[in-house]
Design brief:
Helix 8 packs across helix 9. The strands form 2 sheets. Strands 3-4-5-6-7 form a 5-stranded mixed beta sheet. The chain has a two-stranded parallel sheet with strand order 1-2. It is α/β, with parallel strands linked by helices and 268 residues long. It binds NADP nicotinamide-adenine-dinucleotide phosphate.
């Protein structure tokens, strides 16, 4: 995820390669980042990088965030911006690991950020100013669409857009299978299914209309589309998706609780 963000931000020119430093755990990853992006990347150089940075982005696994914060804590400054990408780690927990009051942001990007088509939910602590918020929005707009939320809503964001690409992949996969079943070639089924999802999503976004209105526009009385929609409704597609996202939100809450317990245990 860290590499995806670096790629998007460099491509959108919101950050210059000469002003971007990445740190990793292993030399191999650092060398790969240097080669891929032409940036300075070092293994184990967290403190040095944090000391020189205006914006520090934490893209390590959630369980490693407190350890990295303890490592860089004494070089962080109140005029820097700290951004965590870690799932399940509330802003208050990140704040509690930082030895001084400073702007802390928590972002939940999804995997299409690698194509600059991500959906990113972001929240922040009370210290962050409007100017810092704008700066963070500018960074993440380079890789997708930004939605500002409260920290308590991050579990729902994780369930909706964080995990969302996986649901859409299943939808596309099923459409391809249906095309195959109806005798279309694999290539034609794939191209038609993927473009249908892409086009429909763009239509919703660009028209600003509720999807139900757009759906209604495609339906002709007694036609083919309503016959298919009847089947989808009969099998509960909508209700299934709502339940799936509700379950995923609850699961995300449980994961946060488990992570906090794990961090508590390792602290004591
Ligand atoms: N992947 C997603 O779709 C996604 C979506 C939303 C949020 N996130 C969040 O993004 C974060 C990263 O996830 P990921 O999937 O990208 O993980 P990942 O592939 O395991 O990458 C983690 C990176 O952190 C580096 N690292 C580990 N310990 C370090 C340390 N002590 N100091 C410096 N660097 C260290 C690793 O370096 P090495 O390569 O050298 O080991 C690796 O480059 C997680 O907190 C996750 O919750 C991920």
């Amino acid at each position: 995820m860290g590499a995806a963000l670096i790629g998007g931000m460099l491509k959108a020119e919101v950050v210059e390669a000469a002003r971007c430093t990445a740190t990793t755990r292993t030399e191999t990853s650092a060398a790969a980042l240097e080669k891929r992006f032409g940036i300075l990347a070092t293994a184990g150089g967290n403190r040095e990088a944090a000391q020189l940075a205006d914006i520090v982005i934490l893209a390590v696994k959630p369980v490693n965030v407190p350890k990295v914060l303890r490592e860089i804590g004494d070089v962080l400054r109140a005029d820097q911006i700290l951004i965590s990408l870690a799932a399940s780690l509330p802003v208050a927990v990140i704040e509690s690991e930082v030895p001084l009051p400073m702007p802390v942001f928590r972002a939940m990007p999804n995997i299409p950020v690698i194509l600059e088509e991500g959906a990113i939910g972001i929240c922040h602590n009370a210290v962050a100013t409007r100017a810092q918020r704008e700066m963070v929005e500018c960074l993440f707009r380079a890789v997708g669409v930004v939605a500002w939320v409260d920290d308590e809503q991050m579990d729902a964001v994780t369930a909706l857009s964080g995990s969302g690409p996986a649901y859409v992949y299943i939808f596309i996969e099923a459409m391809i299978a249906a095309g195959l079943k109806m005798g279309l070639s694999r290539d034609i089924s794939t191209r038609l299914a993927e473009q249908t999802v892409l086009g429909a999503a763009k239509h919703v976004r660009d028209s600003g209309l509720h999807p139900a209105i757009l759906r209604d526009q495609v339906i002709t009385p007694g036609g083919v589309t309503i016959a298919a929609i009847h089947e989808l409704e009969r099998h509960g597609l909508r209700s299934m998706l709502i339940s799936a996202i509700e379950t995923a939100t609850q699961h995300s809450k449980k994961r946060t609780k488990a992570l906090l317990e794990q961090l508590d245990t390792s602290n004591s």
